[in-house]
Design brief:
The structure holds two protein chains of two kinds. By secondary structure, chain A is an alpha/beta fold. Chain A has one domain (5-111, 150-216): Glutaconate Coenzyme A-transferase (3-Layer(aba) Sandwich), CATH 3.40.1080.10. Helices cover 21% and strands 28% of the residues of chain A. The longest helix of chain A is centred in the middle third of the chain and has 13 residues, at 103-115. The radius of gyration of chain A is 18 Å and the shape is globular. The mean pLDDT of chain A is 96. Chain B has a single domain (5-217), classed as Glutaconate Coenzyme A-transferase. Chain B is built from four helices and 13 strands. In chain B, the strands form two sheets. In chain B, strands 4-3-2-1-5-8-10-11-12-13 form a ten-stranded mixed beta sheet. A three-stranded mixed beta sheet of chain B has the order 7-6-9, with no helix packed on it. In chain B, β12 (193-199), α4 (205-210) and β13 (216-217) form a beta-alpha-beta unit. The radius of gyration of chain B is 18 Å and the shape is globular. The chains are: A alpha/beta, B alpha/beta. The interface between A and B is large, with 51 and 39 residues.
């Protein structure tokens, strides 16, 4: 019997190695797997490369992971937030690498990794600092730059519902980067608000089929708070 | 140039948003950037069906919710609570940016630091050494939408022109701005350069030119 549901945070985090690339879903605080980030803090892996839309706020979650010196590099589109003090302090001190990526290029790099596409051409960033050092090609009269896929060793995902096969649904804007982070990661770890029986989620309503998911942890915390 | 603010009446931010809103026809799919452009939605009447998109996978946004009606799982790219109109939908981030990058949006309206008369836009960083610059979705929107409009003040607070021959700040995208709404004028970006469609009451072309770094043309 397939059962991807794990009973403890330690089981969810087991085996994450130093030096891993972690795809962290979420946008604002909606659909962000905060419990799993806390689990990763507890688990202890270091020298991490973290890809996320933002670079953390306050002193919790991703910001805490960075503050503990566990993140070597952050790949994101928008390192500012309501309180980006941890990231900015580390960045100014030269203690963290930053790779800025346009948000759509970030999403497509992750999606491409999940789809087995190693690189793709895009018009986004042509003629800007983002294009420096990248392969350019003219296709049908327009110039494009080549962007690499972004694969995760680990993906941290928040779902609304999950079953033991790892089929997932998301709630409203909580979907954001979650489906693509699941599909692009070798080890996709999910925290879910609700556990459903197999077959209880209608096949038409499954947003992420379980093939993309490895572990599911039940974390019924309720609604997201501030940003 | 001796014209002072007392010689003419600049458009207010509400008027700027109203002018842009009045030029958006029914049926367009539209993304509004964070800041002044967001206010454009307030001036499109509900009976004119314009579909508003947000980068985080929200399509068909309605008016802002009242405090009692806040849905904590429904935010826009500016991290503000929003509503969905009947017919609204949710997708994931890669599909949301496929709408942008695949040329499916009829219009994007962004703020900007500078716009050049060839349509170049600079709106994400103010110097080459900006610490930790944040680009978000601006480059995708500028390069991907069918048309890009800019809503911004005509000059900086200390009077520097923002409509320029060449952007001095890092570019967001090349040759893509089609129209600029400022507190002083509405200006199309054409093959001839900047073409003035309208000006604030009492303003002369000469006075507008004095506040603009690139040559202004009249239609025709």
């Amino acid at each position: 019997m397939i059962n991807k549901i794990v009973q403890s945070m330690a089981d969810a985090m087991a085996g994450i190695k130093d030096g891993s690339t972690v795809l962290l879903a979420g946008f604002g605080s909606v659909g962000q797997p905060n419990a799993l980030i806390d689990g990763l803090i507890e688990q202890g892996a270091k020298d991490l490369v973290v890809a996320a839309n933002n670079a953390g706020a306050g002193h919790v979650g991703l910001a805490r992971l960075m503050e503990l010196g566990r993140v070597r590099k952050i790949i994101c589109s928008f390192p500012r937030s309501s309180d980006p003090v941890v990231f900015e302090t580390l960045y100014r001190a030269g203690k963290i690498e930053l790779e800025i990526v346009p948000q759509g290029t970030l999403a497509e790099r992750i999606r491409a990794a999940g789809a087995g596409v190693p690189a793709f051409f895009t018009a986004t960033g042509v003629g800007t600092k983002m294009a420096v050092g990248k392969e350019h090609r003219e296709i049908n009269g327009r110039t494009y730059i080549l962007e690499d896929a972004l694969k995760g060793d680990v993906g941290l995902v928040e779902a609304w519902e999950a079953d033991r096969w790892g089929n997932l649904t998301y709630k409203l804007a909580g979907r954001n980067f979650n489906p693509i982070c699941a599909m692009a990661s070798d080890l996709a770890i999910v925290q879910t608000q609700h556990i459903r029986e197999l077959g209880e989620i209608h096949p038409d309503n499954i947003h992420t089929p379980g093939i993309f998911v490895d572990r599911v942890l039940h974390v019924p915390y309720g609604d997201p708070g501030g940003f | 140039m001796s014209a002072t603010l007392s010689d003419f009446k600049p458009f207010s931010r509400v008027q700027m948003a109203q002018r842009a809103a009045s030029d958006i026809p029914e049926g367009w799919y539209v993304n509004l950037g964070i800041g002044i452009p967001t206010a454009i939605a307030d001036h499109v009447p509900m009976e004119r069906e314009v579909i508003f998109h947000s980068e985080n996978g929200v399509l068909g946004m309605g008016p802002a919710p009242t405090k009692e009606d806040i849905e904590p799982w429904l935010i826009n790219a500016g991290k503000q609570y929003v509503t969905l109109r009947p017919g609204g939908s949710i997708c994931h981030h890669a599909d949301s940016f496929a709408m942008i990058r695949g040329g499916h949006l009829d219009l994007c309206v962004l703020g900007a630091f500078q716009v050049a008369d060839n349509g170049d836009i600079a709106n994400w960083a103010t110097s080459e050494n900006d610490t930790a610059p944040a680009v978000g979705g601006a480059m995708d929107l500028a390069a991907g939408a069918k048309r890009l409009w800019v809503l911004m003040e005509h000059t900086t607070k200390d009077g520097q022109a923002k409509l320029v021959k060449t952007c001095s700040y890092p570019l967001t995208a090349q040759a893509c701005v089609k129209r600029v709404y400022t507190n002083l004028a509405t200006i199309d970006v054409t093959e001839r350069g900047f073409v003035v469609l309208g000006m604030a009451p009492g303003l002369t072309l000469e006075n507008l030119q004095a506040r603009t770094d690139a040559k202004l043309h009249l239609p025709g």
